[in-house]
Amino acid sequence: MSPPTTRDKIIDAAMAVVREQGVAKLTLDEAAKGAGLSKGGVLYHFKTKDDLIRGMVERLINQCDKLQLAYYDKEPEGPYRWARAMVQTTFDPNGPASDKVSGALLASVAVNSELVAPIQAKYDEWIERIRSDSPSPMLAGLIGMAMDGYSFERIMGLKLCDEEDEMKMKQYILDLLKAEPTHE
Amino acid sequence: MSPPTTRDKIIDAAMAVVREQGVAKLTLDEAAKGAGLSKGGVLYHFKTKDDLIRGMVERLINQCDKLQLAYYDKEPEGPYRWARAMVQTTFDPNGPASDKVSGALLASVAVNSELVAPIQAKYDEWIERIRSDSPSPMLAGLIGMAMDGYSFERIMGLKLCDEEDEMKMKQYILDLLKAEPTHE
DNA sequence: TGCCATATACCGTCTGGCCGGTACAGTACC
DNA sequence: GGTACTGTACCGGCCAGACGGTATATGGCA
To answer: For residue A102, what pLDDT band results from cuts at 50, 70 and 90?
Structure first.
């Protein structure tokens, strides 16, 4: 990996602002300060604030997608392979539930709901993937919903259980995907 | 039900703004316009904007709680009664996935993350409830996460399937809660 | 090798608009 | 005449975006 470009540094800083101070505090000035340059500099790389958020969303999507593909490779073959990869991705510290990337979603919804569109597109793709190799699409769908729930809870700052319980839950879900090759 | 108070009308209008224009557009002026009065009028009822959001959050909590209790009464006795009530609540058109109430959560997170606190408190209570009568707390927890996922997806404007599939999913989940009285 | 031209990357300043909040002046009903 | 409520006018701060400028690198060319 080459050293992060200025563009990347700005996105990092913007994510950090959302995480630490909330979406409302995400200003060009603040992002600039975090990235170590001036607002003018930020506006050189991103023409508008919406553009910056687009960049954040793109980062979110790429990061999650890359992660999911990596986990897919690591998972053994067999039914529910994509679903298993999704579970691993969700609980990964760099996954969608991570503070580091999730700000993008929040920012996009808060500022301009049109900016969610690329997420929706990728989202459809993910769902399609998971359905493709799941003997019970319903079970896979349920678990997919739950993974979203987990991610969103983290983003919103709602805690439903401590970390120990989370690991148990992860294992429980993975067991479900082993034990029920052809449920229904 | 007595006719809605001005206070209620303001909250309704604020919710509508969040729903239709996004959190960023939620201003005192806009909420006032929606409620049919001036900003001064709004500020008479809510001393600050945070105060208004607190009101929205309170509304969200009360509405969901009331709904859940009502469904609990309607559900037949037996295991997973609270979990079943939660599923019904989630899919209810006035439930947490409803456009009409969900804006509160978004607004609170976006504007001032401290305002989420009352939600977290209620949230803990709901989780406790569900665990209390679930033979498999893991299954109940999974379904709870999925219900959150569904609600949040709606709030964010992400669609995972059409309405027909949603109803199938609801039925699938309710069947799970019948078929597995003592899973694990 | 020296000179100009252009592109890239960035800074600092300014401005116009928006928005939260204040102050105060009604109005209407009891 | 007081209380509950609503409107109007305004202030001060913040912020997106525009703009003009600067420094450095690159490349052509004589």
So the answer is: confident
Residues of B in contact with A184 (CB under 8 A): 172
CB-nearest partner of A149 from B106, B116, B149: B149
Q: Which residues of chain B have pLDDT under 70?
A: 1-3, 179-184
Angle at A47 between CA A41 and CA A53, to 5 degrees: 95
Question: Chain A partners of B24 at a C-beta cutoff of 8 Å?
Answer: 110-112
Measured CA A41 to C1' C9 distance, in angstroms:
8
Q: Which residues of A touch B152 (CB under 8 A)?
A: 148-149, 152, 156
Distance from CA of A1 to the nearest CA of B (A): 33
Tokens of A57: 């969303």
Instruction: For residue B157, give the DSSP letter.
Output: T
Question: pLDDT digits over A62-83, tens only?
Answer: 999 999 999 999 999 999 999 9
Sign, CA torsion A52/A54/A60/A62: negative
Q: What is residue B183's predicted lDDT score, i.e. its pLDDT?
A: 44
Cβ–Cβ under 8 Å, residues A57 and A151: no
Establish if B67 touches chain A: CB-CB under 8 angstroms: no
Query: Looking at the partner chain, which of A105, A141, A172 has a beta carbon nearest the beta carbon of B142?
Result: A172
Count helices and strands in chain B by DSSP H and E runs: 9, 0
Interchain CB contact of A43 with B (< 8 Å): no
* Boundaries of every domain in chain B: 6-179
Among all chains, which residue has been given the structure tokens 């109940």? B140
The whole-angstrom separation of Cα A21 and Cα A15 is 10
Using CA atoms, how far apart are residues A172 and A160, in angstroms rounded to an integer?
Answer: 16
Residue matched to tokens 């996105």: A11
Domain A1-47 has CATH 1.10.10.60: yes
Which tokens is A158 given? 């709602």
Residues A116 and A121: their CA atoms lie apart, in Å, by 9
Across the interface, whether the CB atoms of B23 and A109 are under 8 A apart is answered yes
Domain spanning B6-179: CATH 1.10.3720.10? no
* A164: three-class secondary structure by DSSP: helix
